[in-house]
Write a structure and sequence with these properties.
Helix content: 25-40%
Low-confidence stretches: 1-7
Strand order of the largest sheet: 2-5-7-8-9-10
CATH class of the largest domain: Alpha Beta
CATH superfamily of the largest domain: tt1808, chain A
CATH topology of the largest domain: tt1808, chain A
Mean pLDDT: 84
Distance between the termini: 103 Å
Number of strands: 14
Number of helices: 5
Length: about 260
């Protein structure tokens, strides 16, 4: 996506940004709307996984194909870009949003992700890279090719005003220590780790819940079995004591001290 209109950013109001957002929606082409299955699948994996991070730290906000409007640093013209997924770090809830109007937002994009399919070229990814790096200076930019299982994570180097590639570790994971997240490939899909733990997908969560329920049932059965055994042992001990007491009573009736 390119520019919306040649307006200077100075003096632009929220209404101007809202008008630009609606214009962008109206002007979408079929190629921009269409999405190949691998891209759609990866988007679902990303959103489901990263929403789990949001549950643990509320400032971690995940957006899906949200239009970003911002002034060009050189010309002041309003420009736009739509990352496939975007993360913003901010303590207060930012949504719902028609568009992410950068000058009017309390936080900037922290991490943007784009998924490229060779069968469906929806964007100019060369221009997108330049926008994220030179114009928006997003701290982290990730691009993934599901067809080729090719993943690259970039981190913005403020001293050099450019992106540096984040190399994978020995386990093939690319780390973002700022948010304690790692990214890597599992079975051909991009997956996420938070604080060293692989974030599960809905089906995996469902299996984990089933396994947890089954373990709870097994534990309850074990506990019930132990209780039944304890009850039987108590009844046996009580019976033995009753028999001993009756025998002692008979011995005393016969003038015999049972303790001797």
């Amino acid at each position: 996506m390119g520019r919306t209109r040649p307006s200077r950013a100075e003096g632009l109001t929220r209404l101007d940004y809202e008008e630009a957002a609606r214009e962008a929606l109206r002007s979408q082409t079929l190629e921009e709307i269409m999405e190949a299955t691998p891209q759609a699948t990866q988007r679902k994996i990303t959103v489901c996984s990263l929403e789990l991070v949001r549950g643990r730290r509320p400032d971690f906000q995940v957006f899906n194909e949200l239009l970003v409007l911002y002034p060009d640093p050189a010309t002041g013209e309003m420009k736009r870009i739509v990352p496939d997924n975007m993360v913003v770090l901010h303590a207060e809830d930012l949504g719902p949003l028609l568009s992410f109007d950068l000058p009017h937002m309390p936080a900037r994009p922290f991490w943007v992700m784009e998924y490229v399919s060779t069968s469906s070229q929806r964007k100019d990814y060369v221009h997108s890279f330049r926008k994220y790096e030179q114009e928006l200076r997003v701290p982290y930019y990730l691009i993934y090719y599901p067809d080729n299982e090719e993943l690259t994570l970039y981190r913005f180097n403020a001293g050099r005003s450019r992106y540096d590639t984040v190399l994978p570790d020995d386990e093939g994971r690319h780390a973002m220590p700022d948010v304690r997240i790692e990214v890597g490939l599992v079975d051909g899909w991009m997956r996420f780790w938070y604080e060293g733990r692989l974030l599960p997908l809905p089906a995996e969560l469902d299996r984990e819940l089933d396994e947890a329920r089954a373990e709870m049932i097994r534990e309850k059965r074990r506990a019930d079995g132990e209780k039944r055994r304890a009850d039987r042992e108590k009844r046996r001990a009580d019976g033995e004591k009753e028999r001993a007491d009756r025998l002692a009573d008979r011995l005393r009736a016969m003038g015999i001290d049972p303790e001797e």
